[in-house]
Each structure stands twice: as structure tokens, then as C-alpha cells.
Amino acid sequence: MRLKYFFCLTLFITSNFTFANDSCGRYGCPTGAPNSNQEIERNIYTLSNNRTTKFADWVAYRVTPVTIDGPSRSRNFRSDPAIASRFTLETSDYRDAHALLGTDRGHQVPLASFSNTPYWNDTNFLSNITPQSSELNQGPWVRLETAVRNHARAGNEVYVITGPLYEFFFASLPNADERHTVPSGFFKVVATISTSGFVRASAFIMEQDSDRRDNFCTKETTIDEIERRTGLNIFPNFSFGKERAVESRLGGIGSALGC
User: Fold this and answer.
1) CATH superfamily of 20-257
2) How is the chain split into domains, by residue range?
């Protein structure tokens, strides 16, 4: 009886962790990245890897009450086997980066948001990692990621699209043997989508030179601004009216995130 219960529980858990086809939601994954990019779809996220910068131009994922609050998980970073070695970084490329640049290996899809799934280790592929200043990664950035999980914990499904900006020189990895471009900052779009298609969304931009004490709420911007600065179309399947209503305004979901 106990074995039968365990088998049924395992089957239930596994059947509830298939997210790849819904990582972007009904309004589609971002468009506008270079045609040479490689799009990779996994169970818990979809990303668009840029073979020139060596980092993902965008990553999309969906956080729910059942994906979070799992056991402590390890950060065993490794190259992405789905990407040719000349188009991605290896763990050795990050050697001495923290000591010399003050950067962390920052997840674009946070491990903690999927610690309760069988696919948590997919967040440790280097295609999902960027060199992110410790001040940013351990400050306003992680507080925004925590706010997203808190909103999911309250019973919400939260769609997130995040990615890098390249607007000024920040640094180069001191021991990387591939050409690469370290981001100058990062964007994050946080949205909820009702069954009827109603969207509440907020957008944030944070620079690499952010202070650890910064409040992420002060970094809010519009989706229009992110699109202008990245060249992406964040929600390509929006109607014209919905695009104007959602992408040009502030505060769509900010209050729910604690702003």
C-alpha cells in the first residue's frame, strides 16, 4: 500500500511539471532577437541564446505555487549541451570573475523559483547565467525575484521575461577564451494573465552599477521602454489595443509585488 501510494504521488507530481509550452503564455515568446539566435525550449523555460554575446537575449518562464518552496538545491554550473561550445561559455570562463570584477554567476531564471520541480537543475546551464554584479544580484534583483515568488505563493501564476541590456561597457571576464559581451544591465517583465486574457504587467530595468540597497520599485519602467532599448517585441501576440493599454503604463502589477 505504501509503495502504491508513493508511485501515485510520484506520477501526480511528474504530471504537474510540464511547463515548456506555456513558459510565455497565450501572448507568445518575445520576437526581434537576431535570426542567428538559437531558441531552446525546456520544461520550465524558453530562452534565445545569442551566439555573439554568448548570453541569452531573453528567457521566459512561469512561476506557480507548485514550482516554488522545494528543498535546498545546489548550484552546479555547467555548459549547455544543447549549444555548440563556440557559441556559449564554460565554467572556466568565469574563473576569478568574482574576485576581480565583483560579479556573481547570476541566474536569469532563478533556481529558487523551480526548486520544487524535477527540472530545477536546468537553471544551472550557463546559457541561463550572466555575469551580474554582486551588488545588483544580491540586492534589488533578488528582492524582485523574491517578490515574484511571494506573489505566486499567494495563489497566482506569474509570467516573467528577463534579459540583458548592452548600453555601455561594464567589464570583460578576465579568463574567458571566447569573445563575449558582458551586459551593462538587465530587464524583467512580470505579468499575470487571467483566463479571459486580461493582463497586468510591470517592467523593470536595473543597471550593473546598482547599489545593493536600491529598492527595485524605483527601477520600474514601461514595457515600451524595454522594447525600445532591446529591439524586442515582448508580447508579440497582443492586439493593438491591448498593446497600448499594457505596454505604455506603469504600475500594472507593482502593488502586488510590494511597490
Assistant:
1) Extracellular Endonuclease, subunit A (3.40.570.10)
2) 20-257
